Fold this sequence. Notes:
Bound molecules: magnesium ion
Structural class: alpha+beta
Order of helices and strands: EEEEHHHEHEHE
Amino acid sequence: MDVRIGQGFDVHRLVPARPLWLAGVEIPFESGLLGHSDGDAILHAVCDALLGAAGAGDIGMHFPDTDPRYRGAASATFVGEALRLVRESGLRLANVDVTVFAERPRLAPHIPAMRASLAGLLSADAGQVNLKAKTMEGLDAVGRGEAIAASAVVLLIGVAA
Ligand code: MG
């Protein structure tokens, strides 16, 4: 059986007066993630994990932040494209596991919505998609509330010919 693992990591700076997008869900908060796209660190980490598992490079290669087409882009587009590359490679998603690191806002109440959103974007069952939120205990830039980070692992399996 063809089994592929991929991992992804992303971090974005929190700045005032921007919407906060995480896992394709807009979270009510006073600041949002700075980025050329919508800054959705969870979707970027998932995208890199998918591309990594498929041996297809990384998000910067496919969607360069120098490309005006991706200014303000919904990161859901990137996930859709990464998923298309996965399928083209004869692979399908077994599962994805994500950890998001944020001091504020408190993400626990938003986990079910973010998890459902991620499952929808990946055309996956809820049981294939897991999402956990951690704080950084007041340490480092995430801990000081200056940024939000996410890491993801993905397992892909070969589709039988
Ligand atoms: Mg990013």
